[in-house]
Every structure is written in C-alpha cells, then in structure tokens.
Design goal:
By secondary structure, the chain is α+β, with helices and mostly antiparallel strands. The protein has one domain. The protein contains three helices and four strands; from the N terminus they run H-H-E-E-E-E-H. Strands 1, 2, 3 and 4 form a four-stranded antiparallel β-sheet that branches. Strand 2 and strand 3 form a beta hairpin. The longest helix has 22 residues.
Length: about 100
C-alpha cells in the first residue's frame, strides 16, 4: 500500500468513525433520559412521545443512562391515552378552584 492509499484510507476511516459517533450522540430526548433515571444498566425502559411508545434498554451515554430504542415505535392505543387525558383534565380543574 503506498502513501496515497494510506492517506485515503485514513481519511475515509476517520470520516466514517466521526459520523457514526455524531449519528448516535445527541438524538435522545428528555423523555429518553428520564426513562432511565432510576433504572440499572440494560434494564427495560419505555416512554411515550407524541402518539408513539418507544421501548428499549438503558444504555450508558455521557456517563448517564438513557433509554436506547431497540424496537420499532408502537402507536398509543385509546386505553394508553385515557389516563393521561384524565390526569390533565383533573389537574386543570383542581388548579382553577
């Protein structure tokens, strides 16, 4: 392998590694961090975001645990949404008095 090929290989390798680090770092939401606040490494976690439930396991990122998704998001069902709506309505009623 000559010097030109080594330089090209190093450039491609470093670009690939930096992209993979950036692609994995920073795509977590506050809910994904909160899902693992009181959990252990590799413990199952889940959180709702929008109309979806995300499931995964708690993995270390930047010295903290975050819920790293390992399944496709599932849509919230009516039964999943009902308690959340009830709590919001109840909170509005009690704070208005």
């Amino acid at each position: 392998m000559n010097i030109m090929n080594i330089g090209t290989w190093m450039l491609i390798t470093s670009a690939t590694l930096s992209f993979s680090v950036q692609a994995h770092d920073g795509h977590y939401t506050n809910k994904s961090w909160a899902a693992c606040e009181e959990k252990a490494l590799a413990e199952h976690c889940s959180y709702a975001q929008g109309e979806q439930i995300h499931q995964g396991s708690c993995q270390p990122v930047k010295h903290l645990l975050v819920c790293d998704k390992d399944k496709a998001p599932a849509l919230l069902t009516t039964s999943d949404k009902a308690p959340v709506k009830f709590v919001k309505i109840f909170q509005k009623q009690t704070t208005a008095d």
